[in-house]
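Give me the fold.
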Amino acid sequence: MRFEKWQALGNDYLIVEEQELPFELTPERVRRLCCGHFGVAADGVLLLSHPRDARHVAELRIFNPDGSEAELSGNGARQAILYLRRRGWTDEDSFAVGTPAGSIRPQITGPGTCRIDMGCARLSSADYPGGSPDGLGELTPGPRAAVSSSAGAEPQGSVRVVLDGGELDVEVGEDLRVHLTGWALPVFAGRLSEEILHELTENG
């Protein structure tokens, strides 16, 4: 089973193409793959498959290290997008990728950077019923994060978030459409051993 490990802002994922998998990617198998002592060590798994919708270059599923599935991750999406470009799934600078949260449209902006249309933000959630109905509130950055805005620059509503792992540009339009611009880099490529594959197959 061939895989690559990538990271963005210190958030690292294993990237696997579905045709490389000799088994179904179950929650238990995801947990073992992500475990530092028994697997490769990662913050999750990005599973790429050929698209069901001809408008998409690929389908992306994102698994958390506990085995649960996420709808979307900005860091994970950037890693998958730049992997797709590097591995020759597309040579276009702008394309679409299908996710459980819907279609996302990235724009390749450099050898290791891209801008992603993440869709419109939601101001409330049934999972978090507290807070005001309009979703308005205050956000205070932690002691190790810095935020700078570019109020006079285009595009309007742009914020640069500076974290331990690097910088991320966040744009929010008046319609709450969110664009993220940032980088992602490959860490290494590898193959699982026959012994680990056997364990995963037998104990998945």
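The first helix runs from residue 27 to 34.
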